[in-house]
Amino acid sequence: MAHFPEAPRPYYDLSTGISPYTYPLHMPDPTVLARLPEEDEEADLQAAAAFAYGVSHSNMVVAGAGSQSLIALLPRLLPAQRVCLLGPTYSGHAQAWRLQGVPVHLVTDPAALQQAATQPGTVCVVCNPNNPDGRLLSADWLHGLANTCAAHGSLLVVDEAFADFEQESVAPLLPHPALVVLRSFGKTYGLPGVRLGFLLASPEVAAQARALLGSWPVGSLGLAAGRQALRDTAWLHTARAQARAAHTRLTTLLDATGLRHTGQASLFTLVLHPDAPSLWRHFCTYGLVTRIFADQPGRLRLGLPATDAAWSRLETALQAWAASPKSPVSRPGS
Q: With a threshold of 0.90, does the pTM exceed it?
C-alpha cells in the first residue's frame, strides 16, 4: 500500500481468506510461558483435535506450528517418486516438494488426478476447498481417489485448510492406508498468529511425523487456544452460519457490479476479470487489500470484510468500479 499514499485509512485486508470472526480466546496465565509444555497438555490438544475433526483416536493427530510447517514436513514423511497436484492451487505444496528434488506435475482435471493415482509411488495432492478458486470436491469422490491410491501404491494428501466451514471432510475416513489430511486452526478461528495446524493420518504415519517434528512442536499459547476452541462446537456453528451469510452478501455485491466470480468456499470468492491487476489497483485506491496472482492474471481473490466500515468501503469501491467507463465489467455467466 506504500504506492497508494492517498488511500483512506485504516486499510482493510481482504487478501487472506482468514475468517473475520475471531474466537474469544481466554488467554492463559502468563506463568505457563515460563515453563515448557507438559505432555498431558499436548495429549489434551490431540484429543480436542480428534473430537473437532471426527477422527476416531487421538493417536492419528499430529499438532504443529501452523499447517505450513506440516506441508514442509511432507516430503520428509511420505515416500514419493513424483507428486501430482490438482490446480491451480496453493503454491506452498509445489514449493515444498520441489525443494526436496521431487518432480511435481500439475493437472487441472480431477480425472487426470485419478489417472495419476494409478502410478505407483505418486503422491496426489488436493486442496479442498481449493485455494484460490474455491472448488469443492465431495468427500465421496475423494474417498474413491484414496482407495485408488491404496490399490496402486500411491498416496493422497488432502489439504482441508478451509474445510471447517464446508463440512466435506475426509478426516473421518482415517485410519486409511493411503490418506493424509491437513487442517488449519488459524483460518477457521481467526487466530493466524497462534500458529497451529494439524496433520491427520494413520497411527503409524502420525507417529513418524511426531518423531520428525521433535519435542514441543506447539507452544503454550497454541496449546491453550486449541484446547479451548476445538471443543467449542456452538461457536463454530455460529461462525459457520455467519461466514455463509457474509459470502452470500459478497457475491450479491459482485453480481450487482457485474463482476463474474466463482467458488464454493465460504471465506473467500474468486473474481474472474481479464484485467484483474487494474481491479486490484482500484481496490488499493480505496484502502482495500486484495490478492492477485502473477501466474493467473485474470483472477483476483476477495476475502470477507470483518466490520461494517469495511463492508461500506467495499461497496463504495465496487460502485465506483461499475461506474467507471475505463473498467469494463464481465457479466455473470459470460
A: yes
